[in-house]
Amino acid sequence: MDNNLLNKHTTRRNFLKALVGGGVLLSGGAFLARNYRLEDAATANRDFTDTLNPRYLRQIITADPSTSRTLMWQTENKLTDISVEYRPTGQAKVTAVKAADDSFFDDGETNRQYVAHLTNLVPGTSYDYRLVFEGGTSGWHRMQTADTAAPFRCLIFPDSQSSDYGEWAKLAQDAYSRHPDAAFFVNMGDIVDNGEDTGQWRAWFRAVETFAPDIPFVPVMGNHETYSRQWQVRLPIAYLKYFVVPENGSTAFNRYYYSFDYGSVHFAVINTQWEETDKFQTGLLAEQIEWLRDDATHNRQKWKIALLHKDVLQYRIHNLPERTEGFTDVGTSFMPLFDELGFDVVFTAHLHTYRNRGHIFSFHRSAKGPLYILTGIAGNVRYPGLWIDHALDEKIAPQPETDNYLTLDADKDKLAIKCFLPDGREIDNVNLTKN
Predict the structure, then answer these.
(1) Which of 71, 97, 223, 338 could form a disulfide with 343 if both were Cys (CB 3.0 to 4.6 A apart)?
(2) What is each CA distance from 219 to 6, 86, 208, in whole angstroms?
(3) Which tens digit of pLDDT belongs to each residue from 369-399?
(4) Which residues pair with 173 in a beta bridge?
């Protein structure tokens, strides 16, 4: 949701309640409750029934996924002598890497989790890996390193924040079942509705546990990752602990933003939460502008893609005549930089609506400049009838909107982007070519 609508006396949630008449309207007329847990005691106990069967096992993207991978998982009890064994698929000899305890306390409980960093992997190679504990092992899982010269496909999911995460789980699992060749998956921020609520994180992890152990996850931080149970802004403690993404060299904002290469594409994951973080530590915006210019200038990949949570366009809103059409502070801050650095595609989220804007250069529709895609919604928090179409919108999802997801196919000479409804129907596609 666009925080530019708010003043210092109005919270985002209260503003939305006023717009839709008493609550955040969801599909079917439900309202998003505060301070809820998405599990009863029995469900919570099922999370960690066996210390040798860890939950929420996940691969996390690294700066160079052709030669490295980060693995993370959780258990109920503290374990000792933990490691990861891995081997090229079909071979018997294993390599072992020690895992580290990366547990943290948040939301009134200890989240017992572990992390292992695998390095010196061979590009374009299929591996099997398993977790080893005192007295036992997990089952084997697969891992594929990137091939720097090969084409790839990835899944892109918009905001997954939800009231119960059931629709998100079905969307994510169905999307992966249709595209089992996906090399990795992206979640464009507002991963959960409340960043402090451990129950919501568990629900999100359960939704992706059928494929998160096998392909890397690319997280983008959203503003909801910075909310406390009291719906006050806080530092994104849980997000930063759950996802050990590549470091960026920052002292104040390490892992808030990052970049990585996959195949012929350089991805820059930009953090748009400076309004929230400025309440605790200032400088996120200025630091990222300097970092992005250096990061993109020194990269030699053929394609450049930016991933941001908040959107670059400002929309008019029904029943709010003083709200004008234009560009957000995210747009005015980064769009000139994307022009300067030659970015090819910019994916955004936050507004829970799918919009293809085509190419924009110097704040105008153009035959050149980056392609801008507002990715839509993957959870069940919807804003029906809120936005008035922007002059730069070229393709809009069928109304009233439901969930959607995207695929990105990348080759050295072509990018192909497609948007799908939950049942797999394609509603938009665009191709970019470069000699």
Answers:
(1) 338
(2) 26, 24, 13
(3) 999 999 999 999 999 989 999 999 999 999 9
(4) none
